[in-house]
């Protein structure tokens, strides 16, 4: 392990917990523009001197503008580091960062692992890059404000097309042997919404005069669930998750909706879930659409030699991992030669009470991220 890697990781870790506390202590659920602005302001304070700052429209309406910070160098490679500042935790349930009273070595707080801990490491890596301008032409940090609840498209793919690499700092992990892992493959993700339109009637006096939207949605849910095939060629998972219909106990429901979470290796595989949903059930019509179309990411081949080099630099194995969950890295998979995710700290209970970061992993994962970065810079210089 090089002196630069060791010393730089220690430097990042020296302020990481304080930086994490500053970010976590601001409750920033998706959609709260003022809260997002507060977190972005804290991130800007932690940028390297001389970084340019650009605020660009978020992919989702009603959200605060996203942040792009850029550092210019004299080399050839162009790198984008990616994170998000929004959480799924409502203000009334927000917990500031504290030392875990039950488990030494953990810090707990809302959004700590998903993904403000990763944001802290991304900021540290950008500061580290600023000290090596000869190794890159441009290093950008993209922090978005809508990752957790985005349903539409992603606004930034074209902006970074032609970059050499995307490094995303979602939560890190270990493999079964305790080796550090990073993510080089993610599934495509869809959010299928089914709207039912039926006909109301009195459920006691004239039940057959109605067209029951709830029963139609139940049939749609069964049709979606029948597509579930995690062991199949596309590793398709199709899970109905939310259904609502009706407004009174004695009225045939005339309207309702069903939400389903669908994931697969290929985005196109989600189309067969849509095709399986009937257009009409018992006189009620069903209209289905995919509200969220996040592409898959598969950089197992391109990242294999990079991770071998990074492991040599780290002096320890770095394992290529896969996840079913989507992230913003997925949007860059088709436009950059090298794409890697899961560079954040270790932790758990994302989106849940007790969400935590393993404090000691901040330095450990900073080393992993820096080793991967050095290997990518080396590979990009060869390709150039």
TrEMBL record:
<protein>
    <submittedName>
        <fullName>M20/M25/M40 family metallo-hydrolase</fullName>
    </submittedName>
</protein>
<dbReference type="InterPro" id="IPR050072">
    <property type="entry name" value="Peptidase_M20A"/>
</dbReference>
<dbReference type="InterPro" id="IPR002933">
    <property type="entry name" value="Peptidase_M20"/>
</dbReference>
<dbReference type="Pfam" id="PF07687">
    <property type="entry name" value="M20_dimer"/>
</dbReference>
<keyword id="KW-0479">Metal-binding</keyword>
<feature type="domain" description="Peptidase M20 dimerisation">
    <location>
        <begin position="185"/>
        <end position="279"/>
    </location>
</feature>
<dbReference type="Pfam" id="PF01546">
    <property type="entry name" value="Peptidase_M20"/>
</dbReference>
<dbReference type="InterPro" id="IPR036264">
    <property type="entry name" value="Bact_exopeptidase_dim_dom"/>
</dbReference>
<keyword id="KW-0378">Hydrolase</keyword>
<dbReference type="InterPro" id="IPR011650">
    <property type="entry name" value="Peptidase_M20_dimer"/>
</dbReference>
């Amino acid at each position: 392990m090089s002196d630069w890697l060791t010393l730089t990781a220690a430097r990042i870790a020296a302020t990481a917990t304080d930086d994490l506390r500053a970010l976590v202590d601001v409750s920033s659920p998706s959609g709260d523009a003022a809260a997002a602005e507060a977190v972005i302001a804290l991130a800007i304070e932690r940028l390297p001197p001389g970084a340019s700052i650009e605020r660009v429209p978020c992919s989702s309406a009603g959200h605060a503008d996203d942040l792009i910070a850029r550092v210019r160098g004299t080399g050839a490679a162009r790198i984008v580091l990616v994170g998000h500042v929004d959480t799924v935790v409502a203000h009334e349930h927000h917990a500031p960062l504290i030392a875990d009273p039950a488990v030494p070595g953990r810090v707990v707080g809302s959004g700590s692992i998903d993904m403000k801990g990763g944001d802290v490491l991304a900021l540290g890596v950008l500061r580290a890059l600023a000290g090596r301008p000869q190794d890159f032409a441009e290093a950008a940090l993209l922090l978005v404000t809508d990752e957790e609840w985005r349903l539409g498209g992603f606004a930034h793919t074209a902006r970074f097309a032609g970059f050499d690499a995307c490094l995303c700092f979602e939560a890190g992990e270990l493999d079964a042997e305790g080796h550090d892992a990073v993510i080089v493959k993610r599934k495509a993700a869809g959010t299928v919404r089914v709207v039912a339109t039926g006909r109301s009637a009195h459920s006691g006096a004239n039940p057959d005069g109605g067209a029951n939207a709830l029963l139609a949605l139940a049939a749609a849910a069964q049709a979606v669930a029948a597509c579930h095939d995690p062991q199949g060629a596309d590793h398709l998972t199709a899970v109905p998750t939310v259904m609502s219909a009706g407004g009174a106990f004695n009225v045939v429901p005339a309207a309702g909706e069903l939400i389903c979470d669908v994931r697969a290796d290929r985005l196109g595989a989600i189309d067969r879930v849509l095709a399986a949903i009937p257009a009409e059930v018992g006189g009620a019509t069903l209209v289905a659409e995919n509200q969220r179309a996040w592409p898959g990411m598969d950089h197992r081949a391109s990242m294999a030699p990079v991770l071998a080099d990074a492991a040599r630099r780290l002096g320890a194995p770095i394992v290529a991992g896969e996840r079913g969950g989507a992230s913003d890295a997925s949007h860059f998979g088709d436009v950059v030669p090298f794409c890697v995710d899961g560079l954040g700290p270790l932790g758990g209970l994302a989106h849940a009470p007790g969400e935590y970061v393993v404090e000691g992993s901040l330095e450990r994962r900073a080393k992993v991220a820096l080793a991967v970065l050095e290997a990518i810079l080396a590979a990009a210089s060869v390709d150039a």
